[in-house]
Amino acid sequence: MKLLVCTSNQPRHVTLVKRLIQAGHDVLTIVEPKSYGQSKGLERYWNAVREAELEVCGRAFFMPGPVLALRPGELSGVPELTGVYLEDRFPVVFSSSYITPPVVDWFVDKGALNLHVGIAPEYRGSAPNFWAAYDKNEHLVGAQVQRLSRGLDAGDILAETRELEMTGDPFKRGMLAAAHGIELMVGVLETYYATSHPPVRDNDRALEIRYTRHADFTPAVANEFLERYGL
After folding, report:
1. Of 154, 164, 156, which is closest to residue 188 (Cα–Cα)?
2. pTM score of the predicted model
3. DSSP count for the chain of H helices, then E strands
4. Rounded distance, CA 46 to CA 21, Å?
């Protein structure tokens, strides 16, 4: 399948693209970069995230081409995405910026897939697996393949995995959830056009526990979390 993967530049994102290529897909990747450790007071937290990611995903630093590089938040401002040059590609989204019209309309009309590293509807928005662990809801640490929707993390849930390996390290557990989610995405794409994919559970907003934004994650919250695990 000819895919348009909208993602970021960390090892977990590179791993998704590599796995899709290994599965035989023709992949064009749009990258909006992320970086760790830029927020004052959060250095220890992001170092722990980085160490866990390297342990689970390895040193996957080089995104295989072809690649279109954007600045963070630019995805919705590229009208060429809805043009003829990319019309024959199927969109896959993993950790992109929030997508707005007209790009999201084109993606939704094509049945685009979203890799949600979290368990919705209970946890939606920014860093859902962190907040599930913070709330001591380890059974809600996981990943889902959803149909992309105009609402954030609100699409049909087509596949789900819950990372129940109690490693004692919440950072590794979260990265294992991402790795399992990548394999879910590869599996769904194998039969997406050939087989009906009904939802595996309802994405019912009435079950929501937290809808979080970047601003909710503060140094005080991070330090409390680190101290709880002796990190």
Report:
1. 156
2. 0.94
3. 6, 9
4. 29
The alpha carbon of 227 is separated from its chain's Cα centroid by a whole number of angstroms, namely 26
Rounded to an integer, what distance in angstroms lies between the CA atom of residue 80 and that of residue 32?
16
CB 15 within 8 Å of CB 53: no
- CA quadruple 128, 134, 135, 141: dihedral, nearest 10: 50
Please report which confidence band the pLDDT of residue 81 belongs to, taking 50, 70 and 90 as the band edges: confident
Note whether 32 and 75 are within 8 A (CB). Answer: yes
pLDDT band at 90 (very low <50, low <70, confident <90, very high): very high
Give CA–CA dist 30/40, Å, rounded.
29
Look at the block and give the residue holding tokens 């995995």.
161
User: 114: which residues sit within 8 A by CB, 6+ positions away?
Assistant: 92, 93, 94, 145, 146, 147, 148, 149, 153, 155
Mean pLDDT of 179-198: 91
Does residue 115 contact residue 158 with C-beta atoms inside 8 Å? no
